[in-house]
C-alpha cells in the first residue's frame, strides 16, 4: 500500500519536470528523511548476478546508473548495455570506482542470477560496481514506472521496451535520462563527476 | 585573356590531381551486405579477401546491426591483427552504409552486437597469402564459432 501511495504521488509529477528539477541537495543529504522523488522509497530487494541481495538505498551517497534490459534480447539490449558501459567508461577513471551500475532485467522467467552471471562474464562486465539484477515482478514494474521505462512481453517471448539509461543522484533522485540508442554520453558523465565532486566536498 | 586561361588550367589541374592520386592507390571497394532481422541475420559474404588499402563497404539491407571488431575495446577477445585499432560501426539500420578501410595484412574477425549469439559474425582476410585463423573459438559464443568453422 505504501509503495502504491508513493508511486501515485510520484507519477503525479511529470517525468520531464522531474528530470530537470534540481533540489537543494546538501541539506537533504544530511537529513535522514528521503526526498519525495527519491527511488530509495522502493523497498525492493534485488538479487544480483553474484547471488547477493541489494537494495537501492544501499547506494545512498553515490550516483547509480540504471538500465533495464533482458538477456535474450537480440535487438537493442546489447546496444543499450554497451551504451551504459560507454557512460560508465566516460566517467573519469579516478572517480569510476564510486559509480554503481544497476542493470535490471525484466525477464524474470529466463534471467536467473546464474544466467545473469554468465551474461555479465561474457560481456566482461563482471566488475566491481556493476550489478545485473532480478527481483519480484511487482518490484521490477514499480522501478520501471518510476524511471519512465515501458515494457511489455510479446507473444513470441520477446519484450518491447523503452531504451533508457538513467542516473540517480546521491539521494536516489533521477538526475539524468539518456533516451534512445547510441547517444553521446559526455554530458551525462560530466554530471556524474560533478555529483561526486559535490558529495566529496560536503 | 591569358590570365584567364591560366586560371582555368590551374583549376582543371587542381580538380584532376586528387582523382589521379586516388587512382594511383589501386584500392578496391568490396561490398558486404548485411541481411536478416533475427536468427537469419548474416553478412554476405561472411568471408572476403582484400588487399591492404582496400575499402569494405557494408550495406544494411534489412534489420538493425553493427559491424564490431573482436577486440578488448569492444569487450571481446582480440581477433584482429596486433597494433590495429578496434572498430565499431555503432548501430546501423536498413539503408545505412558504413565503410571500413583495411590498412594491414591479417585476419579481421567482426560481429554484429545484437546477433552475435545467433552466429552473426564475419571475417576479412587481408593480404596475398590465404592464412588460417588461429583464434580461440572457445572464447566466443557457440553459434559464432560454428559460423567461423563453416568458412572455407
Structural overview:
The complex is a heterodimer of chains A (202) and B (152). By secondary structure, chain A is of the alpha+beta class. Chain A contains 8 helices and 9 strands. In chain A, the strands form 2 sheets. In chain A, strands 2-1-5-4-3-8-9 form a 7-stranded mixed beta sheet, with helices on both faces. In chain A, β4 (100-105), α6 (113-122) and β5 (130-134) form a beta-alpha-beta unit. The longest helix of chain A is centred in the last third of the chain and has 16 residues, at 186-201. The termini of chain A are far apart. Chain B has one domain: Cupredoxins -  blue copper proteins (Immunoglobulin-like), CATH 2.60.40. In chain B, the strands form 2 sheets. Chain B has a 4-stranded mixed beta sheet with strand order 2-1-4-6, with no helix packed on it. Classes of the chains: A alpha+beta (202), B alpha/beta (152). The A-B interface holds A 73-79, 82, 85, 122-125, 181-182 and B 38-39, 41, 64, 66, 72, 75-76, 90-91, 113-118, 141.
Q: Would you list the SSEs of chain B in sequence order as H and E?
A: HEEEEEEEEH
Strands in their spatial order, largest beta sheet of chain A: 2-1-5-4-3-8-9
The rounded Rg of chain A comes to 16 Å
- What is the SS-derived class of chain B? alpha/beta
Q: Report the sheet-strand fraction of chain A.
A: 15-25%
**Arithmetic mean pLDDT of chain B:** 86
Task: Domain count of chain B, please report it.
Answer: 1
Helicity range of chain B: 10-25%
The biggest sheet of chain B, with number of strands, parallel, antiparallel or mixed sense and barrel status, is:
4 strands, mixed
* H and E string of chain A: HHHEEEHHEHEHEEEEH
Question: What is the CATH fold-level name of chain B?
Answer: Immunoglobulin-like
Number of strands of chain A: 9
> Class by helix and strand content of chain A?
alpha+beta
Number of strands of chain B: 8
- Roughly what is the average pLDDT of chain A, rounded to an integer? 86
Number of helices of chain A: 8
Q: What does the overall shape of chain A look like?
A: globular
* CATH architecture label name of chain B: Sandwich
N- to C-terminal separation of chain A? 35 Å
Determine the fraction of residues in helical runs of chain A and give it as a percent range. 25-40%
Biggest interface, residues from each chain: A-B, 15 and 17 residues
Amino acid at each position: 500500500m505504501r509503495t502504491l501511495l508513493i508511486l501515485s504521488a510520484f507519477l503525479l509529477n511529470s517525468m520531464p519536470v522531474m528530470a530537470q528539477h534540481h533540489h537543494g541537495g546538501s541539506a537533504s543529504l544530511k537529513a535522514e528523511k528521503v526526498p519525495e522523488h527519491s527511488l530509495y522509497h522502493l523497498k525492493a530487494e534485488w538479487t544480483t548476478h553474484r547471488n547477493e541481495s541489494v537494495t537501492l538505498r544501499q547506494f545512498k551517497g553515490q550516483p547509480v546508473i540504471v538500465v533495464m534490459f533482458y538477456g535474450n534480447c537480440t535487438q537493442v539490449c546489447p546496444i543499450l548495455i554497451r551504451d551504459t558501459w560507454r557512460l560508465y567508461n566516460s566517467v573519469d577513471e579516478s572517480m569510476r570506482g564510486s559509480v554503481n551500475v544497476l542493470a535490471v532485467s525484466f525477464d524474470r522467467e529466463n534471467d536467473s542470477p546464474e544466467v545473469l552471471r554468465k551474461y555479465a562474464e561474457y560481456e566482461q562486465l563482471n566488475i566491481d560496481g556493476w550489478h545485473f539484477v532480478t527481483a519480484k515482478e511487482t518490484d521490477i514494474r514499480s522501478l520501471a514506472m518510476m524511471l519512465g521505462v515501458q515494457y511489455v512481453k510479446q507473444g513470441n517471448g520477446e519484450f518491447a521496451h523503452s531504451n533508457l539509461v538513467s542516473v540517480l543522484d546521491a539521494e536516489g533522485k533521477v538526475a539524468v535520462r539518456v533516451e534512445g540508442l547510441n547517444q553521446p554520453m559526455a554530458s551525462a558523465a560530466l554530471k556524474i563527476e560533478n555529483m561526486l565532486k559535490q558529495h566529496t566536498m560536503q | 585573356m591569358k590570365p584567364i586561361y591560366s586560371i582555368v588550367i590551374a583549376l582543371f589541374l587542381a580538380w584532376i590531381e586528387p582523382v589521379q592520386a586516388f587512382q594511383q592507390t589501386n584500392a578496391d571497394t568490396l561490398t558486404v551486405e548485411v541481411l536478416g532481422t533475427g536468427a537469419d541475420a548474416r553478412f554476405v559474404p561472411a568471408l572476403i579477401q582484400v588487399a591492404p588499402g582496400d575499402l569494405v563497404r557494408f550495406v544494411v539491407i534489412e534489420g538493425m546491426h553493427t559491424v564490431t571488431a573482436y577486440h578488448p575495446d569492444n569487450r571481446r577477445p582480440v581477433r584482429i591483427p596486433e597494433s590495429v585499432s578496434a572498430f565499431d560501426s555503432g548501430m546501423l539500420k536498413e539503408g545505412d552504409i558504413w565503410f571500413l578501410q583495411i590498412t594491414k595484412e591479417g585476419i579481421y574477425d567482426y560481429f554484429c552486437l545484437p546477433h552475435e549469439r545467433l552466429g552473426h559474425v564475419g571475417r576479412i582476410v587481408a593480404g596475398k597469402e590465404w592464412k588460417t585463423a588461429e583464434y580461440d573459438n572457445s572464447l566466443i559464443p557457440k553459434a559464432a564459432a560454428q559460423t567461423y568453422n563453416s568458412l572455407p
